Amino acid sequence: MSEVDMNALEDEIKGIVVEIIEVEPEEVTAEADFVEELGMDSMQALEIMAAIEKKYKVQIPEDYLGKIVNFSSLLKISNEIINGK
Questions:
Q1: CA distance readout (Å), 56 to 52, 59, 84
Q2: Taking the CB of residue 68, how many other CB atoms lie within 10 A of it?
Q3: Residue 70 near residue 34, CB atoms below 8 Å
Q4: Residue 3, pLDDT score
Q5: For residue 1, what pLDDT is reported?
Q6: CB 2 within 8 A of CB 82
Q7: Does residue 48 contact residue 16 with C-beta atoms inside 8 Å?
Q8: Which residue of 41, 65, 77, 83 has the fewest CB atoms within a 10 Å radius of its CB?
Q9: Nearest 5°: phi and psi at 15?
């Protein structure tokens, strides 16, 4: 699989987050806490992971779920898995 451009990856993943947790794109900042500030619940977190896995044909280990606290951490983990870093 070819490496996914970081800007494209950021836009695509933000789109997934916005759609699943039903917030405005400008609310999804790098450090906005998904649970505390954006109201994400555990089912939505799983939906986001599943959507990323499906879109990029990757497997995100379940133990990563607890590490995804904001958009910055989600993007970092996604980039590492998708681009094999």
A1: 6, 9, 12
A2: 20
A3: yes
A4: 65
A5: 40
A6: no
A7: yes
A8: 41
A9: -60, -40
> Cα torsion at 19, 21, 27, 29 (round to 10°)?
-90
**Is the pTM here over 0.85, yes or no?**
yes
Residue 61 has pLDDT above 70, yes or no: yes
pLDDT at 5: 86
> What are 65's two structure tokens?
């779920």
Specify the CATH architecture of the domain 6-82. Orthogonal Bundle (1.10)
In the predicted model, is pLDDT for residue 73 greater than 90? yes
| Residues sharing a CB contact under 8 Å with residue 80, sequence separation 6 or more, in sequence order | none
Contacts of 2 (CB under 8 A, 6+ apart): none
Give the residue from 42, 35, 85 showing the smallest Cα distance to 76: 85
Smallest Cα–Cα separation from 21: which of 34, 4, 36? 34
In tens, the pLDDT along 12-35 reads: 999 999 999 999 999 999 999 999
Cα 52 from Cα 68, distance rounded (Å): 13
